[in-house]
Design goal:
alpha/beta; CBS-domain; Beta Polymerase, domain 2; Four Helix Bundle (Hemerythrin (Met), subunit A); 3 domains; 3-stranded mixed beta sheet; globular
Length: about 475
C-alpha cells in the first residue's frame, strides 16, 4: 500500500485507545493534578458514560490564569470546552485531519458506532505518519500568503489525485479529498483578500457553493457554481464593497486554475449575488414556475452549502424552500420527472449503447448515463424528507434511516453511483495524463470484460431507481 493511502484507512487503526477522563463536577484542582501525574495536556470530560467535553492546557491558561481566577473554587464544568468535537472510529484518517484544520483544534475524541468513548487522535499522531501527504498539503494551504502560492497548491492537488488514482483508494474518499482540498484553497483565498484589500467588508454574508461542489462530490474538471447571500440590513455602501469583493474573488479563483462556470453561475454576476429576501423572491419564482430551465437551476441551487460566512442565511433560505415545496409539490414532481428523462444507454439484451459518430464515437457520457439521475433522484427524495445535508452518500444513509429507502435498494444505489463516479474520475485522470481536456465521456473499449459487466449492472440499477422515483412521486399524474 502506498504511504499516502494511510490517510484513507480507518481512524481505529491509529487512535490512542487509553484516554484519561474526568467528570464535569470534579474539582478543577483534582483534574489538573491528574494531568500533571500523567504528563498529558488534556482530559476528556465524561457525562453519563459518554464523552461530553474536553479540558486542555489552553483552557487553563485562557480561562483561569489570564483572568486571575482562583482554581480551588472552580469545577471542571466551569472551564471545559463543550460541545465536544468527535469523529467516528470508522471514519478515515483524512477526515480527522480535515476537521481539525477547519475547527482549528489539535485533537479529536474518537467514538464508536453507539457514541461511546473509543479513543483520541491528535494532529501530532497524524504528523508522525508522513511529511509529504494530503496532510502536508493542507498545512501548506493554511500558510499560503499569495494568490501565486495558491495557484501552485491547486496544481499540487491535481498531481496528488493523479498519483492516488488507481492505488485502491475508495472513490467516496477520493471525491471527498478533492472537495476538502478545494474548500481549503477557496477559504484561504477569501481570507487573503479580506485581510489585504477588504478589511472593512461586512461579516453579514455567506459565500455558498452549489451543485457537485455543494455536495462535496467534485472530480478533477469540476467548474464553479457559487453565489453570495447577504443580510437585508446591509446598506448600499456595504453592498458595493461586497460587489467589488465578489468580482475580485471569482477572478482570482479563475486565475489559480478553477474553471469558470460556462453558464455564469458565479458570485461575481449580479443574478448570483442577492440579499436574503431577494433570494427568497427568486426561489419563489423558480419553485412556482417549474419550467425545464427553472427546474435545472433550482435543483442545482438546492445543493447550496455555506463555505464561508453566516450559515444561518443558508439555513433560512433552505427552510423557506422546504416550506414552499411542502405546500406545492409541482416543482418537486417536475424535478423527479426530469431525472427520469435521462435514459441509461442500454439496448437489447443489456448491450451498452455508445455514440455512433462524431468526436465521441465509441464513448458513453457517464454523467448523463446515470450519475445525474442518481444525484437528482436522491436529492428529490431528500428534499421531500428534509434530509438534504451532505453528499449523495450521506443523503442515502439518511433516507434509509428515515425509512424512505430499503437497505438492499440503498446498497445497490451506492454501488452504482460509486462505479459511475469512479469511471468518470478515471476518464478525467487519463485525459489529463494524455494532455487532453477532461470530459464526462469514457471509451467503452477501454474497459475490460469485468468492468463492462459492472457498468451494465450500474446502468440497470439506475433504471430500477428511476422506476422507484416514478412510483414514489406518482409521476403518472403529471401532464406532459
Amino acid at each position: 500500500m502506498a504511504e499516502e493511502n494511510q490517510f484513507f484507512r480507518p481512524i481505529r487503526d491509529f487512535c490512542q485507545r487509553e484516554v484519561i477522563t474526568c467528570r464535569p463536577e470534579d474539582s478543577l484542582v483534582a483534574a489538573v493534578g491528574r494531568m500533571r501525574e500523567r504528563n498529558i495536556s488534556s482530559l476528556v470530560v465524561v457525562r453519563d458514560e459518554r464523552p461530553h467535553g474536553i479540558l486542555t492546557d489552553r483552557d487553563l491558561r485562557n480561562k483561569v490564569v489570564a483572568p486571575g481566577l482562583d482554581p480551588s473554587t472552580l469545577s471542571v464544568a466551569a472551564v471545559m470546552n463543550a460541545p465536544l468535537a468527535v469523529i467516528g472510529e470508522d471514519d478515515v484518517l483524512y477526515e480527522a485531519l480535515y476537521r481539525m484544520s477547519r475547527l482549528k483544534i489539535h485533537r479529536l475524541v474518537v467514538v464508536d458506532s453507539a457514541g461511546g468513548l473509543a479513543g483520541i487522535i491528535t494532529d501530532t499522531d497524524i504528523l508522525r505518519l508522513q511529511a509529504h501527504s494530503p496532510h502536508q498539503l493542507v498545512l501548506d494551504i493554511e500558510k499560503a500568503n499569495s494568490i501565486d502560492a495558491l495557484r501552485h497548491l491547486h496544481e499540487r492537488i491535481q498531481k496528488l489525485v493523479l498519483h492516488l488514482a488507481g492505488t485502491g483508494v475508495a472513490i467516496r474518499d477520493m471525491v471527498k479529498l478533492i472537495a476538502n482540498l478545494n474548500d481549503q484553497v477557496l477559504i484561504r483565498l477569501i481570507h487573503l483578500l479580506r485581510n489585504e484589500k477588504y478589511p472593512d467588508l461586512s461579516a453579514d454574508f455567506a459565500f455558498v457553493v452549489m451543485g457537485s461542489e455543494g455536495r462535496g462530490e467534485q472530480t478533477l474538471s469540476t467548474d464553479q457554481d457559487n453565489a453570495i447571500i447577504y443580510d437585508d440590513a446591509l446598506d448600499s455602501a456595504q453592498v458595493a464593497r461586497l460587489v467589488a469583493f465578489s468580482q475580485e474573488l471569482i477572478d482570482a479563483l479563475i486565475s489559480i486554475g478553477v474553471p469558470p462556470c460556462p453558464g455564469g453561475i458565479m458570485a461575481k454576476n449580479p443574478q448570483w449575488r442577492r440579499s436574503l429576501s431577494g433570494w427568497k423572491v427568486e426561489l419563489n419564482r423558480w419553485l412556482s414556475t417549474p419550467t425545464p430551465d427553472n427546474v435545472m437551476t433550482g435543483s442545482m441551487f438546492m445543493d447550496l452549502r455555506a463555505l464561508y460566512g453566516r450559515a444561518d442565511l443558508v439555513d433560512s433560505l433552505r427552510e423557506h424552500a422546504f416550506r414552499h415545496m411542502s405546500q406545492d409539490q409541482g416543482f418537486l414532481m417536475r424535478m423527479a420527472q426530469n431525472m427520469t428523462n435521462f435514459h441509461p444507454p442500454l439496448g437489447w439484451f443489456g448491450r451498452i449503447k455508445v455514440e455512433k459518430s462524431g468526436p465521441q464515437r465509441g464513448k458513453v457520457d457517464v454523467k448523463k448515463a446515470g450519475i445525474f439521475a442518481i444525484t437528482d433522484g436522491v436529492k428529490a427524495l431528500a428534499i421531500k424528507a428534509r434530509k438534504l445535508d451532505g453528499s449523495t452518500h450521506d443523503r442515502i444513509e439518511a433516507l434509509v434511516a428515515d425509512g424512505v429507502l430499503k437497505d438492499d435498494a440503498a446498497a445497490d444505489l451506492r454501488a452504482a453511483f460509486d462505479f459511475l463516479v469512479l469511471m468518470r474520475l478515471r476518464g478525467h485522470v487519463e485525459a489529463l495524463r494524455a494532455g487532453r481536456e477532461p470530459s464526462n465521456y469514457i471509451a467503452l473499449d477501454q474497459l475490460n470484460a469485468m468492468e463492462q459487466g459492472e457498468f451494465r449492472l450500474a446502468l440497470e440499477g439506475v433504471v430500477k431507481f428511476q422506476a422507484f422515483i416514478k412510483h414514489h412521486f406518482s409521476l403518472h399524474l403529471l401532464r406532459h
